[in-house]
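Lab manual, section 2.4: Encoding a predicted structure.

Procedure: take the sequence of the chain (193 residues), apply the prediction step described in section 2.3, and record the output as structure tokens. A sample record is shown.
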Amino acid sequence: MKIVGVGCGPKMLTEEAIVAIRSAHRIFGSRRAIELAREHLPSNADVQEIHDFHALADIPEDAVILSTGDPMLSGLGSLSGEVIPGISSLQVAVARIRIPLERICAVTAHGCDHVGAIQEAVEEIIRGRAVFITAEPAFSLETLAAALRKVNPELKIAIFEDLGYPTERIAVGTADAPPVVRSRLFSLLAGDF
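Recorded output:
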């Protein structure tokens, strides 16, 4: 099995990912991942949308699984098989606002406990790190901002929406005056950056 990162937005596939996709006979992925790879899907491949991510163990060993962004950042990299990295939302976000990756700690709030993710983010910020949070539509920016206000109301919060898409939007505020999330596809950066 190959787990292939397709990037966080259009035109972010690596050459290695394209080769793996073009040579695949069975391809599985979310609707978004399939769309990001669409132009490279072989016409004779069996392409199936994944609706139940709990059933990933049933995917055949000779399949290619498409993972949005990079499989090792809140992705499917925990599955057994070869991992082909992709361009993650973290990489694109820090490039857009020009912050070196080594200053960043990544925290996942995608498909997991949001309260725990916020607590982890606050702890890392207290340690002096900026924190990149992979979010999901139900993640509450206001709850994060309230927790950060207790540390320092001037801490920055940046939201990254639809990275790589024509509708890409980046907005920066503070814990005291956080930016407004307008998209279902977003991630965050918080801290002193």
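Check your result against the sample. The two ends are 39 Å apart (CA to CA).
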